[in-house]
Amino acid sequence: MDQHSALITNDAIIFGLLMLMLAAIFATAHSGKPFWKKFYTYVPIVLMCYFLPSMLNSIGIVDPGSSRLYFMASRYLLPACLILLTLGTDLQGIINLGPKAIIMFLAGSFGIIIGGPLAILIVSAFAPEVVGGVGPDAVWRGLATIAGSWIGGGANQAAMKEIFQTSDEIFSAMITVDVIVANIWMAFLLFGAARSSRLDKVFKADASAIESLKTKIEDYRTGIAKIPDLTDTIVLLGIAFGGTGIAHLFADSVGPWFQERQSFLDQFRLQSLASSFFWLIVVATTIGVGLSLTPLKKMEGAGASRIGGLFIFILVATIGLNMDVTAIFYNPGLFLVGLIWMSVHVIILLSVGKLIKAPFFFIAVGSQANVGGAASAPVVAAAFSPSLAPVGALLAVLGYALGTYGAILCGILMQAASAAGP
């Protein structure tokens, strides 16, 4: 689109429109009116946060190519939100969930990490054009962004887009695959939650520990909860953006050092190490996890994840601004890749659950903490019992912490699988 043909070119106006859209989405999503309740039962909030801004691009109101909003969100808000979302990682609390909860979560992560490469290899055997492409349009690059979403969440997904240099066109298609496939699986989990006692019998699982788990989580949340004041908010922003500055300082030094050794990286397919953005995300995540081992982790009670969530949705809106809603027709075969990938995740998850006799609660929440992240893991947990919703949030935080590393590994494996195909 020609910049001069766009109706609005001022970023301040565009940002105002994006925030009004987010406000409208959240206001209607939490409305008590029957229509909106039914609407958001079938349409995820996050999909609307992508879709509405994309309409500004699709109908020519704005030209995303001339906007700096996505650059601002990805370089400043993204690392800041990763720090805030991992700041509250209560490692001891996660350990207290018991080994079966952690095993099921890690089994879900493992299923996603190997599921992507396997899906590429399987589809390439009979339809290599579906998983082909070169340069920024290579399908494996787009699938790497789904890996970020399915292990960590929206922030990790955006990070993978930058790290693996995914084009806007294929990224738009991947978001559609991500949302539809993930929500099909979530529907099965919610269906199973209503029949968890029967499923526990199938898995021969003892669910008595769940009651003890409720008490532990409630006590922890109550212990750190507080009404944040201005000082708390400024301290949180200082941690977030101070850490972001440190991450940029490190990335600006390490990235160029690896760029000077590009031939070595090419030899071992480690090109992502030469990206300064790669190091920005890794260092920001590491800072957040490191701070979670200090007394600062209690700042979660002052709203660290709430502010981090705000940054994520601003980021999602700026990504949506670069989307083309017609990209769903870009490569319909990608849905088959997504379904095979999710099937690998489910098979591994159920197999491990059966092996260790895990309650279905741990299977469902362990899966959704990966695939859905903080947006839907608490919803699935609450389907078993409202008091268990924090368990989903707690495991989702672990997903944020591991999502960067797991998704990068998955992306590298998918690159290798794509090269190994016919």
Characterization of the model:
Helix content is 73%, strand content 0%. Helix 4 packs antiparallel against helix 15 (304-321), helix 6 runs antiparallel to helix 16 (334-356) and helix 7 packs parallel to helix 9. The model has no long low-confidence stretch (mean pLDDT 83). With 422 residues, it is mostly helical. It has helices spanning 11-29, 34-42, 45-58, 69-87, 91-96, 99-124, 139-151, 154-163, 168-193, 196-202, 209-224, 230-259, 262-267, 276-291, 304-321, 334-356, 360-371, 377-384, 389-420. The protein has one domain.
Radius of gyration: 21 Å
Number of distinct beta strands? 0
Strand content: under 5%
- Whole-number average pLDDT? 83
Query: How many helices in DSSP terms?
Result: 19
Major beta sheet summary: none
- CA-CA gap between termini: 36 Å
